[in-house]
Amino acid sequence: MIYLDNSATTPVDKAVCDKIYEMLSVNFGNPSSFHKAGLNANTELKNARQSLANALSCEAEEIYFTSGGTEANNLAILGAAEANKRRGKRIVTTAIEHESVLQSINELEKQGFEVVRLMPDSKGNITKAQIADAINGDTILVSIMYVNNEVGSVLPVDFIKKVVKRANAPALIHIDCVQAFGKIPVKPAKLGADLVTVTAHKIGGPKGVGALYVKKGVRILPRTFGGEQEKRLRPGTQAMPLIAGFGTACEGITDLDAQSERMHALCTYAKDELCKIDGVLLNSGSDASDYIINFYVPVFMTSQTVVQHLSSKYDICISNGSACAKGKKSHVLTAMRLPDKVIERSVRVSFSKHTTKEEIDALIKAIRETVADYAK
What we know:
Blueprint: E1 2-3, H1 14-25, H2 36-56, E2 63-66, H3 69-84, E3 90-94, H4 99-110, E4 114-118, H5 128-134, E5 139-143, H6 160-166, E6 172-176, H7 188-191, E7 195-199, E8 210-214, H8 240-251, H9 256-275, E9 281-282, E10 292-296, H10 303-314, E11 316-317, H11 331-335, H12 340-344, E12 346-350, H13 357-374
Parallel strand pairs: 1-11, 3-4, 3-5, 5-6, 6-7
Antiparallel strand pairs: 2-8, 7-8, 9-10, 10-12
Helix pairs in contact: 1-8, 2-8, 3-4, 9-13
Protein backbone atom coordinates (compact mmCIF):
# COMPACT_ATOMS: atom_id res chain seq x y z
CA MET A 1 0.00 0.00 0.00
CA ILE A 2 1.13 3.52 -0.84
CA TYR A 3 -0.12 5.86 1.84
CA LEU A 4 -0.42 9.55 0.87
CA ASP A 5 -3.06 10.76 3.33
CA ASN A 6 -0.79 11.89 6.14
CA SER A 7 -2.80 15.04 6.88
CA ALA A 8 -5.58 12.73 8.05
CA THR A 9 -3.25 10.59 10.12
CA THR A 10 0.23 9.13 9.98
CA PRO A 11 1.45 5.56 10.50
CA VAL A 12 2.57 5.06 14.08
CA ASP A 13 6.34 4.85 14.52
CA LYS A 14 7.68 1.56 15.90
CA ALA A 15 9.32 3.26 18.90
CA VAL A 16 5.92 4.78 19.71
CA CYS A 17 4.19 1.39 19.48
CA ASP A 18 6.81 -0.10 21.79
CA LYS A 19 6.31 2.67 24.35
CA ILE A 20 2.52 2.30 24.23
CA TYR A 21 2.82 -1.46 24.77
CA GLU A 22 5.15 -0.89 27.71
CA MET A 23 2.64 1.50 29.29
CA LEU A 24 -0.21 -0.96 28.78
CA SER A 25 1.57 -4.08 29.96
CA VAL A 26 4.32 -3.07 32.38
CA ASN A 27 4.04 0.54 33.52
CA PHE A 28 0.26 0.58 33.81
CA GLY A 29 -0.18 2.59 37.03
CA ASN A 30 -2.37 5.64 37.51
CA PRO A 31 -0.01 8.66 37.59
CA SER A 32 -2.07 10.19 40.41
CA SER A 33 -1.46 7.23 42.73
CA PHE A 34 1.24 7.46 45.40
CA HIS A 35 2.50 3.87 45.34
CA LYS A 36 5.41 2.64 43.22
CA ALA A 37 3.32 1.88 40.12
CA GLY A 38 1.71 5.30 40.28
CA LEU A 39 5.01 7.10 40.81
CA ASN A 40 6.56 5.28 37.86
CA ALA A 41 3.64 6.31 35.65
CA ASN A 42 3.93 9.87 36.92
CA THR A 43 7.57 9.90 35.89
CA GLU A 44 6.49 8.89 32.38
CA LEU A 45 3.91 11.69 32.40
CA LYS A 46 6.57 14.22 33.33
CA ASN A 47 8.92 12.87 30.68
CA ALA A 48 6.28 13.11 27.96
CA ARG A 49 5.35 16.64 29.00
CA GLN A 50 9.00 17.66 28.88
CA SER A 51 9.50 16.03 25.46
CA LEU A 52 6.60 18.03 24.03
CA ALA A 53 7.85 21.19 25.74
CA ASN A 54 11.28 20.64 24.18
CA ALA A 55 9.71 20.25 20.76
CA LEU A 56 7.79 23.52 21.24
CA SER A 57 10.66 25.38 22.95
CA CYS A 58 8.44 26.18 25.93
CA GLU A 59 8.19 25.20 29.59
CA ALA A 60 6.70 21.87 30.63
CA GLU A 61 4.18 23.54 32.93
CA GLU A 62 2.68 25.28 29.88
CA ILE A 63 1.59 21.93 28.35
CA TYR A 64 -1.87 20.47 28.99
CA PHE A 65 -2.71 17.07 27.54
CA THR A 66 -6.09 16.53 25.87
CA SER A 67 -7.82 13.80 23.87
CA GLY A 68 -6.67 15.38 20.60
CA GLY A 69 -6.63 18.53 18.48
CA THR A 70 -10.41 18.89 18.47
CA GLU A 71 -10.65 19.01 22.26
CA ALA A 72 -7.65 21.32 22.50
CA ASN A 73 -9.25 23.73 20.01
CA ASN A 74 -12.56 23.65 21.89
CA LEU A 75 -10.83 24.23 25.21
CA ALA A 76 -8.78 27.12 23.84
CA ILE A 77 -11.63 28.92 22.10
CA LEU A 78 -14.49 28.36 24.53
CA GLY A 79 -12.24 28.70 27.57
CA ALA A 80 -10.71 31.96 26.32
CA ALA A 81 -14.06 33.50 25.40
CA GLU A 82 -15.59 32.61 28.76
CA ALA A 83 -12.63 34.02 30.66
CA ASN A 84 -12.55 37.30 28.71
CA LYS A 85 -16.19 37.97 27.81
CA ARG A 86 -16.37 41.07 30.00
CA ARG A 87 -13.48 42.66 28.10
CA GLY A 88 -15.01 42.66 24.64
CA LYS A 89 -17.19 40.77 22.17
CA ARG A 90 -15.24 40.45 18.92
CA ILE A 91 -13.64 37.19 17.76
CA VAL A 92 -11.50 37.07 14.61
CA THR A 93 -10.95 33.86 12.68
CA THR A 94 -10.93 32.63 9.08
CA ALA A 95 -13.44 30.77 6.93
CA ILE A 96 -10.95 27.94 6.31
CA GLU A 97 -10.32 26.74 9.86
CA HIS A 98 -10.72 23.15 10.98
CA GLU A 99 -14.29 22.18 11.85
CA SER A 100 -13.45 22.07 15.56
CA VAL A 101 -12.58 25.78 15.41
CA LEU A 102 -15.45 26.75 13.12
CA GLN A 103 -18.08 25.00 15.18
CA SER A 104 -16.73 26.26 18.51
CA ILE A 105 -16.86 29.82 17.21
CA ASN A 106 -20.31 29.25 15.70
CA GLU A 107 -21.49 28.35 19.19
CA LEU A 108 -20.00 31.54 20.61
CA GLU A 109 -21.73 33.56 17.90
CA LYS A 110 -25.06 32.07 19.03
CA GLN A 111 -24.23 33.35 22.51
CA GLY A 112 -23.90 36.91 21.24
CA PHE A 113 -20.24 37.28 20.32
CA GLU A 114 -19.39 39.21 17.17
CA VAL A 115 -17.47 36.99 14.76
CA VAL A 116 -15.29 38.19 11.87
CA ARG A 117 -14.45 35.40 9.41
CA LEU A 118 -11.65 36.32 7.01
CA MET A 119 -12.11 35.01 3.47
CA PRO A 120 -9.18 33.48 1.54
CA ASP A 121 -8.08 34.15 -2.02
CA SER A 122 -8.27 31.47 -4.73
CA LYS A 123 -5.21 29.69 -3.29
CA GLY A 124 -6.37 29.71 0.32
CA ASN A 125 -4.23 32.63 1.47
CA ILE A 126 -5.13 35.20 4.13
CA THR A 127 -3.22 38.49 4.04
CA LYS A 128 -1.69 40.57 6.81
CA ALA A 129 -3.90 43.47 5.70
CA GLN A 130 -7.03 41.40 6.31
CA ILE A 131 -5.87 40.55 9.81
CA ALA A 132 -4.96 44.16 10.56
CA ASP A 133 -8.35 45.43 9.37
CA ALA A 134 -10.28 42.87 11.44
CA ILE A 135 -8.71 43.37 14.88
CA ASN A 136 -9.94 46.31 16.95
CA GLY A 137 -9.97 47.31 20.60
CA ASP A 138 -13.02 45.11 21.28
CA THR A 139 -11.31 41.91 20.09
CA ILE A 140 -10.92 39.29 22.82
CA LEU A 141 -9.81 36.32 20.74
CA VAL A 142 -8.00 35.70 17.48
CA SER A 143 -7.99 32.07 16.33
CA ILE A 144 -6.15 31.41 13.06
CA MET A 145 -4.48 28.19 11.89
CA TYR A 146 -0.82 28.07 10.90
CA VAL A 147 -1.15 25.63 7.96
CA ASN A 148 -4.45 24.80 6.28
CA ASN A 149 -5.23 21.10 6.34
CA GLU A 150 -6.83 20.91 2.88
CA VAL A 151 -4.75 23.11 0.56
CA GLY A 152 -1.65 23.71 2.68
CA SER A 153 -1.72 27.50 2.66
CA VAL A 154 0.58 28.98 5.30
CA LEU A 155 -1.08 31.86 7.13
CA PRO A 156 0.80 34.89 8.56
CA VAL A 157 0.13 34.00 12.18
CA ASP A 158 3.33 35.59 13.46
CA PHE A 159 1.87 38.97 12.46
CA ILE A 160 -1.15 38.74 14.77
CA LYS A 161 0.62 39.80 17.98
CA LYS A 162 1.82 43.04 16.39
CA VAL A 163 -1.72 43.96 15.34
CA VAL A 164 -3.19 43.08 18.74
CA LYS A 165 -0.67 45.36 20.45
CA ARG A 166 -1.26 48.16 17.96
CA ALA A 167 -5.02 47.95 18.48
CA ASN A 168 -4.55 47.83 22.25
CA ALA A 169 -6.88 44.84 22.22
CA PRO A 170 -7.33 42.43 25.15
CA ALA A 171 -7.25 39.53 22.68
CA LEU A 172 -5.75 36.15 23.35
CA ILE A 173 -4.08 34.60 20.31
CA HIS A 174 -4.84 30.97 19.52
CA ILE A 175 -3.00 29.16 16.72
CA ASP A 176 -4.04 25.72 15.50
CA CYS A 177 -0.66 24.17 14.67
CA VAL A 178 -1.86 20.62 14.04
CA GLN A 179 -0.64 20.57 10.42
CA ALA A 180 2.52 22.56 11.14
CA PHE A 181 3.93 20.75 14.17
CA GLY A 182 6.69 18.31 13.28
CA LYS A 183 7.04 19.79 9.79
CA ILE A 184 8.12 23.38 10.38
CA PRO A 185 9.39 25.00 13.60
CA VAL A 186 6.53 25.75 15.99
CA LYS A 187 7.66 28.00 18.83
CA PRO A 188 4.74 29.71 20.60
CA ALA A 189 6.87 32.53 22.00
CA LYS A 190 8.28 33.38 18.58
CA LEU A 191 4.78 33.23 17.05
CA GLY A 192 3.44 35.52 19.78
CA ALA A 193 0.82 32.92 20.70
CA ASP A 194 -1.03 32.57 23.98
CA LEU A 195 -2.60 29.24 23.04
CA VAL A 196 -1.32 26.59 20.61
CA THR A 197 -2.96 23.32 19.57
CA VAL A 198 -0.96 20.23 18.56
CA THR A 199 -1.79 16.55 18.26
CA ALA A 200 0.10 13.25 18.20
CA HIS A 201 -1.29 11.35 15.24
CA LYS A 202 0.05 13.78 12.63
CA ILE A 203 3.67 13.12 13.70
CA GLY A 204 3.80 9.33 13.95
CA GLY A 205 2.07 9.19 17.33
CA PRO A 206 -1.21 7.57 18.41
CA LYS A 207 -4.72 8.86 17.85
CA GLY A 208 -6.64 10.03 20.89
CA VAL A 209 -4.10 12.39 22.44
CA GLY A 210 -3.21 16.01 21.79
CA ALA A 211 -2.13 19.01 23.79
CA LEU A 212 -2.82 22.66 24.36
CA TYR A 213 0.01 25.07 25.07
CA VAL A 214 -1.15 27.79 27.45
CA LYS A 215 1.31 30.62 27.94
CA LYS A 216 2.31 31.13 31.56
CA GLY A 217 0.07 33.77 33.11
CA VAL A 218 -2.74 33.34 30.55
CA ARG A 219 -6.12 32.50 32.04
CA ILE A 220 -8.75 30.38 30.31
CA LEU A 221 -11.62 28.53 31.96
CA PRO A 222 -12.08 24.74 31.91
CA ARG A 223 -14.83 23.04 29.94
CA THR A 224 -14.90 19.85 32.02
CA PHE A 225 -14.79 19.27 35.77
CA GLY A 226 -13.93 16.46 38.12
CA GLY A 227 -10.32 16.20 39.25
CA GLU A 228 -6.93 17.76 39.86
CA GLN A 229 -5.30 16.41 36.71
CA GLU A 230 -3.76 18.91 34.27
CA LYS A 231 -4.13 21.58 36.96
CA ARG A 232 -7.92 21.28 36.73
CA LEU A 233 -7.96 22.71 33.22
CA ARG A 234 -8.51 19.28 31.70
CA PRO A 235 -9.41 16.90 34.55
CA GLY A 236 -9.69 13.14 34.28
CA THR A 237 -7.24 10.27 34.55
CA GLN A 238 -4.51 10.82 31.98
CA ALA A 239 -4.37 8.32 29.09
CA MET A 240 -0.81 7.36 29.88
CA PRO A 241 -0.16 4.88 27.02
CA LEU A 242 -1.17 7.56 24.51
CA ILE A 243 0.59 10.41 26.31
CA ALA A 244 3.83 8.43 26.62
CA GLY A 245 3.51 7.55 22.93
CA PHE A 246 3.07 11.24 22.13
CA GLY A 247 6.24 12.03 24.05
CA THR A 248 8.17 9.39 22.14
CA ALA A 249 6.87 10.74 18.82
CA CYS A 250 8.06 14.21 19.82
CA GLU A 251 11.54 12.84 20.42
CA GLY A 252 11.51 11.75 16.77
CA ILE A 253 11.27 15.36 15.55
CA THR A 254 14.84 16.06 14.52
CA ASP A 255 16.67 18.15 11.91
CA LEU A 256 13.67 19.94 10.46
CA ASP A 257 15.91 21.92 8.12
CA ALA A 258 17.12 18.82 6.31
CA GLN A 259 13.64 17.34 6.34
CA SER A 260 12.16 20.54 4.89
CA GLU A 261 14.76 20.64 2.11
CA ARG A 262 13.96 17.08 1.08
CA MET A 263 10.21 17.63 1.25
CA HIS A 264 10.43 20.80 -0.82
CA ALA A 265 12.23 18.95 -3.59
CA LEU A 266 9.71 16.10 -3.43
CA CYS A 267 6.70 18.40 -3.47
CA THR A 268 8.09 20.48 -6.33
CA TYR A 269 8.65 17.31 -8.34
CA ALA A 270 5.11 16.08 -7.62
CA LYS A 271 3.55 19.40 -8.64
CA ASP A 272 5.60 19.56 -11.85
CA GLU A 273 4.57 16.04 -12.82
CA LEU A 274 0.90 16.61 -11.98
CA CYS A 275 0.84 19.74 -14.15
CA LYS A 276 2.04 17.67 -17.11
CA ILE A 277 -1.23 15.72 -17.02
CA ASP A 278 -3.75 17.32 -19.36
CA GLY A 279 -6.49 19.15 -17.47
CA VAL A 280 -5.08 18.78 -13.93
CA LEU A 281 -5.19 22.05 -11.98
CA LEU A 282 -3.44 22.81 -8.71
CA ASN A 283 -5.60 24.36 -6.00
CA SER A 284 -2.63 24.70 -3.64
CA GLY A 285 -0.47 27.78 -4.12
CA SER A 286 3.23 27.83 -4.95
CA ASP A 287 4.02 28.96 -1.38
CA ALA A 288 1.83 26.36 0.33
CA SER A 289 3.16 23.72 2.71
CA ASP A 290 5.33 21.15 0.99
CA TYR A 291 3.38 18.41 2.74
CA ILE A 292 0.00 19.06 1.05
CA ILE A 293 -1.11 19.25 -2.59
CA ASN A 294 -4.76 19.79 -3.48
CA PHE A 295 -5.61 19.43 -7.16
CA TYR A 296 -8.49 19.08 -9.63
CA VAL A 297 -8.80 15.81 -11.54
CA PRO A 298 -10.57 16.27 -14.92
CA VAL A 299 -12.75 13.15 -14.87
CA PHE A 300 -16.48 12.57 -14.80
CA MET A 301 -16.21 10.91 -11.38
CA THR A 302 -16.59 12.80 -8.11
CA SER A 303 -13.53 13.17 -5.91
CA GLN A 304 -14.81 10.53 -3.50
CA THR A 305 -15.04 8.04 -6.37
CA VAL A 306 -11.53 8.97 -7.49
CA VAL A 307 -10.28 8.24 -3.97
CA GLN A 308 -12.01 4.86 -3.97
CA HIS A 309 -10.76 4.07 -7.49
CA LEU A 310 -7.14 4.78 -6.61
CA SER A 311 -7.46 2.70 -3.47
CA SER A 312 -9.07 -0.33 -5.12
CA LYS A 313 -7.10 -0.41 -8.39
CA TYR A 314 -3.70 0.98 -7.38
CA ASP A 315 -3.63 0.49 -3.59
CA ILE A 316 -2.90 4.21 -3.18
CA CYS A 317 -4.50 6.11 -0.29
CA ILE A 318 -5.33 9.79 -0.81
CA SER A 319 -8.32 11.87 0.28
CA ASN A 320 -10.93 14.26 -1.01
CA GLY A 321 -10.52 16.74 1.86
CA SER A 322 -10.54 16.76 5.62
CA ALA A 323 -11.14 13.34 7.17
CA CYS A 324 -13.32 15.01 9.82
CA ALA A 325 -15.74 16.19 7.11
CA LYS A 326 -16.49 12.57 6.09
CA GLY A 327 -17.05 13.34 2.43
CA LYS A 328 -19.00 16.57 2.78
CA LYS A 329 -18.39 19.38 0.29
CA SER A 330 -15.17 21.15 1.19
CA HIS A 331 -15.81 24.38 3.07
CA VAL A 332 -12.22 25.42 2.31
CA LEU A 333 -12.52 25.15 -1.47
CA THR A 334 -15.95 26.76 -1.24
CA ALA A 335 -14.51 29.71 0.69
CA MET A 336 -11.83 29.99 -2.00
CA ARG A 337 -14.71 30.55 -4.47
CA LEU A 338 -13.64 27.77 -6.79
CA PRO A 339 -16.17 26.55 -9.39
CA ASP A 340 -18.48 23.76 -8.26
CA LYS A 341 -17.02 21.30 -10.77
CA VAL A 342 -13.54 21.93 -9.36
CA ILE A 343 -14.73 21.49 -5.77
CA GLU A 344 -16.55 18.26 -6.66
CA ARG A 345 -13.52 16.73 -8.43
CA SER A 346 -10.58 17.85 -6.32
CA VAL A 347 -8.45 15.55 -4.20
CA ARG A 348 -5.67 16.00 -1.64
CA VAL A 349 -2.39 14.16 -1.33
CA SER A 350 -0.40 14.72 1.82
CA PHE A 351 3.12 13.58 2.60
CA SER A 352 5.17 12.64 5.63
CA LYS A 353 8.90 12.59 6.25
CA HIS A 354 8.84 8.97 5.08
CA THR A 355 7.31 9.65 1.63
CA THR A 356 9.52 8.63 -1.29
CA LYS A 357 9.95 9.65 -4.93
CA GLU A 358 8.91 6.15 -5.96
CA GLU A 359 5.57 6.64 -4.22
CA ILE A 360 5.11 9.95 -6.01
CA ASP A 361 5.87 8.26 -9.35
CA ALA A 362 3.23 5.62 -8.62
CA LEU A 363 0.70 8.34 -7.81
CA ILE A 364 1.45 10.25 -11.03
CA LYS A 365 1.08 7.08 -13.10
CA ALA A 366 -2.25 6.31 -11.42
CA ILE A 367 -3.62 9.82 -11.95
CA ARG A 368 -2.45 9.87 -15.57
CA GLU A 369 -4.15 6.54 -16.30
CA THR A 370 -7.31 7.57 -14.45
CA VAL A 371 -7.59 10.76 -16.46
CA ALA A 372 -7.01 8.86 -19.70
CA ASP A 373 -9.66 6.29 -18.84
CA TYR A 374 -12.31 8.57 -17.34
CA ALA A 375 -11.77 12.01 -18.87
CA LYS A 376 -14.87 14.19 -19.15
